[in-house]
Write a structure and sequence with these properties.
Layout: E1 6-19, E2 22-35, E3 39-44, H1 50-57, E4 65-70, E5 73-74, H2 80-90, E6 91-95, H3 106-116, H4 123-133, H5 149-161, E7 167-171, H6 179-194, E8 199-203, H7 206-209, E9 214-219, E10 222-227
Helix pairs in contact: 3-4, 3-5, 4-5, 5-6
């Protein structure tokens, strides 16, 4: 396997927390690879370490030991500012609670990563294209409270897409949606995967995980099982 084809590669990735006198080994020496264009699901019970691993992969946290390469660059121990830049330019996030700014329109919410990243020239065009891709061109001027739950998640997906990231990281993206709307969101993610997006979805729901090509099971801070 060529390392040029890898979006994610971790080597002995470890994250330990201290809670008073106790030491919590949340992630224990995880070795993981995700190739460009893969759709991978990460499953595990509460306390299994999957959320901590997601935070490490999303550059939201740093490991105590080990390495994490994102598109070949070791990003595990970068400065806070450098990790923020990585998150903005190269990782698109989709959260269970949407994380939209309530006073901004759908268009402005999607535009935010480009504004933070100081994108020039194509900001409005790229934002409009991202909203069109998720079927919300006609709702671009609506604020989140004027949109349904499914529409809000589509805005969040458009925001994740707008920077053309190396990785889309989805954390329980259907958790706040009814089953019909959740299925529509998963079909959209599957379409994005077919178009070439690399997607890592974190979920506790087997039905959600089935949309992925590969399912990883976490237990006690380690990846214990891989289902293809």
């Amino acid at each position: 396997m060529s390392t040029n084809s890898l979006v994610i590669r971790t080597e002995n990735l470890t994250r330990t927390y201290r809670m008073g006198s106790a030491e919590i080994n949340a992630v224990r020496g995880v070795n993981l690879t995700v190739q460009r264009g893969e759709f991978v699901a990460l499953m595990g019970a509460s306390g299994s370490g999957k959320s901590t691993l997601m935070h490490l992969i999303g550059c939201l946290d740093t490991p105590n030991a080990g390495h994490y390469w994102l598109e070949g660059e070791d990003v595990a121990h970068l400065s806070t500012r450098a990790r923020a830049d990585i998150r903005n330019r190269r990782i698109g996030f989709i959260f269970q609670s949407f994380n939209l700014l309530p006073r901004l329109s759908a268009l402005d919410n999607v535009m935010l990563p480009l504004m933070y990243g100081r994108a020039n020239g194509q900001t409005k065009k790229r934002t409009s294209e991202a909203l069109s891709r998720v079927g919300l061109a006609s709702r671009s001027n609506h604020r989140p409270n004027e949109l349904s739950g499914g529409e809000r998640q589509r805005v969040a997906i458009a925001r994740a897409l707008v920077t053309s990231p190396a990785l889309i990281l989805a954390d329980e993206p259907t958790g706040n949606l009814d089953s019909k709307t959740g299925a529509e969101i998963l079909h959209l993610l599957a379409e994005l995967h077919r178009e070439g997006s690399t997607i890592l979805i974190v979920t506790h729901d087997q039905n959600v995980a089935e949309y992925a090509e590969r399912i990883l099971i976490m237990q006690d801070g380690q990846i214990r099982e891989e289902v293809k």
